[in-house]
Amino acid sequence: MLNKSYNIDQIYNSVKDTTNQGYSKLSNFVSNDEVNILIGILENLFLENEKKYSGRIVEIKNINRAEFSILKKYKDIINKNLNSVLKTKFYLNKVWFERKIFNINTNENYKSELPYVPHIDKIRFFKALIYLQDTSEVNGAIKLGKQKPDDFETLRQKIINNKNVSNIVNNKTVTYNSINGKRGDIILFDTNNPHLAGDGEENKMRMTIRLDFENIHWNNNNLFSKIKFMSKNALKLI
Ligand SMILES: [Fe+2]
Q1: How wide is the angle at C-alpha 163 spanned by C-alphas 196 and 126, nearest 5°?
Q2: Quick one: which H or E segment has residue 231?
Q3: Which of 11, 31, 55, 76 gets the most CB atoms within 10 Å of its CB?
Q4: How many Å lie between the centroid of ligand 1 and the Cα of residue 77?
Q5: Of the segments 41-45, 73-77, 134-138, which one has the largest average pLDDT value?
Q6: Domain total of the chain
Q7: How many A from CA of 16 to the centre of ligand 1?
């Protein structure tokens, strides 16, 4: 499979689409060889890192400084022109890796809980999901609405300022699509676009890399409370 090379204008348009409708997809963005390199890095980083969440096994790890230096070698692979486009409006805030294993579910109530119900995130990010394998409903692809992210900013501010305001979105007119994609695709989305985690079938795995970007105006709470919040919510993936 040959990867498609995107020029700056095409990527700009995709980012623009994301700001208008909440998400977009850059098909075949990462080449087969590059995906193999990234999978190799993940295999090394995640080998012994299993945690349980909502009755299913989740593997996740925030990468540390040493690991980040390994990753930096591959910065060009995963960012390419995307990074330079985002730099004009966003800055790269944090790099996360995730790899999930869906296992036998022991808690039948999980589907009525976050992150398996439509919501927006309290801390807003522009995310790039790199699919390292084909991803669909079967292995728990994210489900996204198609809404203009800025339209939900007032609600998010209410959530931030009043702990009684829920981040669950109950609007029945919003429909949610499973964002299926192929190995090498990148999905761009804004967490202000209502979304929910895909549950997937038992024992199915999804391997993705997630890059988080933020606009300097979005999350201007102090660093300490941000770290505290993010570590508390580290398992609440997308
Ligand atoms: Fe979320």
Answers
A1: 40
A2: helix 223-232
A3: 11
A4: 26
A5: 134-138
A6: 1
A7: 21
**In the prediction, which pLDDT does 81 show?**
66
Residues having C-beta closer than 5 Å to ion ligand 1? 121
Q: Look at the block and give the residue holding tokens 């109530």.
A: 109
What is the whole-number distance in angstroms between the Cα of residue 125 and the centre of ligand 1?
A: 10
Question: 68 with 95: CB under 8 angstroms?
Answer: yes
Distance of CA 111 from the midpoint of ligand 1 (Å):
14
pLDDT digit string (tens) for 109-151? 667 788 889 999 998 988 888 898 999 998 889 999 999 999 9
Closest by CA position to 195, among listed 168, 217, 219: 168
Q: Give the distance (Å) from ligand 1 centre to CA of residue 120.
A: 6
Question: Per the structure block, which two tokens stand in for 183?
Answer: 């190995």
Q: Residue 53's beta-bridge partner residues?
A: 56
In this structure, is residue 1 part of a structural domain? no
